[in-house]
Amino acid sequence: MTIGNILLGDHPLFLAPMEEITDPSFRMICKIHGADFMFTEFISSDGLIREGEKSVKKLNIYDFERPIGIQLYGHLIDAMVEAAIIAEEAKPELIDINFGCPVKKIANRGAGAGMWQNIPHMIEMTAAIVKAVKLPVTVKTRIGWNEDNKNIVEVAERLQDTGIKAITIHGRTRVQMYKGFADWTLIGAVKNNPRMKIPIIGNGDIDGPEKAREMFDRFGVDGIMIGRASVGRPWIFRDIKHYLSTGVLLQEPTVNEKVELALLHLEKSLEFKEGKRAIYEMRRHLSNYFKGLPHFKETRLKLLTSLDTDEIRSIFGEIRAKWGEFRTEERTSVYGI
């Protein structure tokens, strides 16, 4: 698979951009485990052009995580174009436009998935950004606004005509938010549309190696994007890659291995952010790293309420001592058997 001049090989895996999740520390952890392409947390065009501290900090990218894209969202064409030009100066590999975020405070302003209520505006904005920057431009979107308006096949054609180099499609409508199931048949319909020449990346409900294999095989997508299933479980990229190449399911990491990974994640989070903020934003990962451990409620509560890094390291030691070589899930099956 190629996006512009970015070579990604066969069956590449993408880490989805997620607010206050896909920060540099988590991107590093996912890169170590095999993510082929990653994105920054999405950045508000308004915040960026006004030099808001939070937005500007999200432009920080590092050599260890390349190739990487900067994702932007907004509802005003001029602001999005200006933001794209600013983002290009940070030297990512590409600029991605978010037409998929369903949360009310974004969609109700006409940004993110809200663009599905004004498709001509979506197309005009995309064309303007493509024209304004030299980097490849990609789009992340959904299959439509609601059950009665799932017109991604037509819209994908129109987006391709603006000059974008790839499109990622989440298989839910905006109204669905993250509920129900992702409709991969419509993602497949876009991929199998003879008019489409750009890579199609599928997103939604990929929670393990077998599901990834099924989506590649059934719908022929060029790549797969993984979001929520990676939170506190970054080894999902390693597991999928191994399964795709060998047909063998890797075992879940032991608790000892998870502790080592959580410690590394914590240290990197502290390296990139101030103390308390680093810990606050690590919590959603920590609650998942040890998900499924028996009799873990009391320890989990301590882990998710402490703001003292030494205490957190001590709790990790307790987890190691109590659960050690325990695995929350045993896997022995082989593809085709």
What this model shows, in words?
This protein has 337 residues and is of the alpha/beta class. The protein has two domains: 2-246, Aldolase class I (TIM Barrel, Alpha-Beta Barrel); 255-323, Non-ribosomal Peptide Synthetase Peptidyl Carrier Protein, Chain A, CATH 1.10.1200. The chain contains 14 helices and eleven strands. The strands form two sheets. Strands 3, 4, 5, 6, 7, 8, 9, 10 and 11 form a nine-stranded parallel β-sheet that branches. Helix 11 (255-272) runs antiparallel to helix 14 (309-323). The radius of gyration is 20 Å and the shape is globular. The chain starts with a strand and ends in a 14-residue tail after the last helix.
What proportion strand?
A: 5-15%
Rg for CA atoms:
20 Å
- General form: globular
**Total beta-strand segments:** 11
Second rung of CATH, namely the architecture of the largest domain: Alpha-Beta Barrel
Model regions low in confidence, pLDDT < 50 over at least 5 residues:
330-337
Mind summarizing the main beta sheet?
A: 9 strands, parallel
CATH superfamily of the largest domain: Aldolase class I
Please specify the SSE layout and strand pairing.
Blueprint: E1 2-3, E2 6-7, E3 13-15, H1 24-32, E4 38-39, E5 43-44, H2 45-49, H3 53-57, E6 68-73, H4 77-88, E7 94-99, H5 104-107, H6 119-132, E8 137-144, H7 152-161, E9 166-173, H8 184-191, E10 200-203, H9 209-219, E11 223-226, H10 236-246, H11 255-272, H12 275-289, H13 297-303, H14 309-323
Helix pairs in contact: 1-11, 4-6, 6-7, 7-8, 9-10, 11-12, 11-14
